[in-house]
TrEMBL record:
It comes from Adineta steineri. InterPro entries: GPCR_Rhodpsn, GPCR_Rhodpsn_7TM. This is G-protein coupled receptors family 1 profile domain-containing protein. GO terms for molecular function: G protein-coupled receptor activity. It is a multi-pass membrane protein. The lineage of its organism: Eukaryota, Metazoa, Spiralia, Gnathifera, Rotifera. Its main location: membrane. Residues 32-286 form the G-protein coupled receptors family 1 profile domain. It comes from the Eukaryota. The chain crosses the membrane at residues 17-39, 51-75, 95-118, 139-159, 179-202, 223-247, 267-289. It is found in: Membrane. Gene3D superfamilies: Rhodopsin 7-helix transmembrane proteins (1.20.1070.10). Keywords: G-protein coupled receptor, Membrane, Receptor, Transducer, Transmembrane, Transmembrane helix. GO terms for cellular component: plasma membrane.
Length: 339
C-alpha cells in the first residue's frame, strides 16, 4: 500500500510538472518565435540573407512544435498522460509531427552554421557558391525527405497493453537505437553545427582584412555570433534527451510495475521539458548575446509595428499621413537597420 501511494504521488507530480512546464515553455516559445519571425521578415537587412532564411524556417518549425507540445499538455491535464496509449492514430501522429519538427529545427541550425562558414570565407568562389535560391531549393528538398522519413518511422509505433505507445518492430527499434537517435538526431547535427560554426567564427575574426562594406561586415559578425551561441545551446540541450530516448526505446517500463513506471514517467517529463527548451531558446539567446539584435527588435516593435498600428488608427479617423513624412520615416528606418 505504501509503495502504491508513493508511486501515485510520483505520477501526480510528473503530471503537474508536465502541465506547468508545458504552459510556461509554450508561452515563452510562442512569444520568442513570433518575434523572431517579425525581425527576420520585416527588416530588409535580413530578407536576402540566407542564414536569416534558415532561422526563419527554424522559427516556423519551432512554433509548430510548440502547438504540438501544448496539445500534449492539454491531454495530460485531461487524462493524466499524453493519451498516446489510448488512440492509435494519435500515437503515430504525435511522433510523426514531433520528428518532422525536430529534424527540421536541428538541421536548419546546421544549415545556418554551414551557410555562415561559406558566407564569411575569404575565398570569393566559396562565398558565391551558396545562394538564397539554392538555400530555398535545399530546404524544400530536405523538408520533403524529413516528412517521408518521419511518416515511415512514425507509422511503426504501436500501442501495446503493458507498455503503451512504443516502437513494436524490431528492425525500427534497431534503427532508432543505432542510427536515428545517436546519429541522425545526435552526432551528425552536433558535429556539423559545431564544426562549421567554429570555422565561421574563425573566418569572421579575420573579416576586417577583406574588402567588404561596413554593413556587410557588421551583419556577418552579428549572425556568426548568434549562430555560434545557438549551436552551443543546441548541443547542451539535445544530448540529454537523445541519451534518454535510446535507453527508453530499448528498455520500456511495463505499467505492471507501478513504482518503476512512475519514476520513468517523471524522468521522461524532465528530459522532455529540457528538450523542448531547444525549440524556445533561439530568440532569447539572440537577444542576450547580440546588442545589435536587441536594437533590431526594438526597431521592429517600436518603429514598424507601433507606427503601422498608429497609421492604421489614423486612417480609420480619416487622417492620412503625407507622403513625404512616410518617405522620411522609411529612410530613417533603413539607416537605423544598418547600425
Amino acid at each position: 500500500m505504501a509503495s502504491s501511494s508513493v508511486s501515485d504521488g510520483i505520477r501526480k507530480f510528473a503530471t503537474q510538472y508536465s502541465i506547468y512546464t508545458g504552459c510556461m515553455i509554450f508561452s515563452f516559445g510562442v512569444i520568442g518565435n513570433v518575434l523572431n519571425l517579425l525581425v527576420f521578415t520585416q527588416l530588409k537587412l535580413f530578407r536576402t540573407n540566407r542564414c536569416a532564411f534558415y532561422i526563419t524556417i527554424e522559427s516556423i518549425s519551432n512554433l509548430i512544435y510548440q502547438f504540438l507540445s501544448i496539445s500534449v499538455t492539454i491531454l495530460t491535464t485531461i487524462y493524466g498522460d499524453d493519451a498516446t496509449g489510448r488512440s492509435l492514430i494519435w500515437c503515430k501522429l504525435r511522433y510523426i509531427l514531433a520528428q518532422i519538427c525536430a529534424l527540421t529545427t536541428l538541421y536548419m541550425i546546421c544549415f545556418s552554421a554551414v551557410d555562415q562558414f561559406f558566407s564569411t570565407n575569404y575565398r570569393f568562389n566559396l562565398r558565391q557558391m551558396c545562394t538564397l535560391k539554392l538555400g530555398r531549393y535545399t530546404s524544400f528538398i530536405f523538408i520533403c525527405c524529413v516528412i517521408i522519413h518521419s511518416i515511415v518511422l512514425g507509422s511503426s509505433y504501436d500501442i501495446q497493453p503493458t507498455f503503451g505507445c512504443v516502437l513494436s518492430n524490431y528492425v525500427w527499434i534497431q534503427y532508432s537505437t543505432y542510427f536515428f537517435y545517436p546519429v541522425l538526431n545526435g552526432l551528425l547535427p552536433i558535429v556539423i553545427a559545431s564544426s562549421f560554426s567554429i570555422l565561421a567564427y574563425h573566418n569572421v575574426r579575420h573579416i576586417i582584412r577583406r574588402q567588404l562594406s561596413i554593413v556587410r561586415r557588421k551583419l556577418d559578425k552579428q549572425i556568426t555570433a548568434m549562430v555560434l551561441m545557438r549551436v552551443i545551446a543546441f548541443v547542451c540541450l539535445v544530448l540529454p534527451y537523445i541519451t534518454y530516448r535510446i535507453y527508453a526505446i530499448n528498455f520500456p517500463i511495463s505499467q505492471s510495475m507501478p513504482m518503476a513506471y512512475a519514476v520513468g514517467r517523471l524522468i521522461q517529463a524532465i528530459f522532455t521539458s529540457i528538450s523542448i527548451i531547444n525549440y524556445v531558446i533561439n530568440f532569447y539567446i539572440f537577444i542576450v548575446f547580440s546588442s545589435r539584435f536587441r536594437r533590431q527588435v526594438k526597431l521592429v516593435l517600436v518603429r514598424k509595428c507601433w507606427q503601422r498600428w498608429k497609421y492604421w488608427c489614423c486612417s480609420i479617423n480619416n487622417r492620412i499621413e503625407p507622403d513625404n513624412n512616410i518617405e522620411l520615416r522609411n529612410s530613417q528606418m533603413k539607416s537605423v537597420e544598418n547600425i
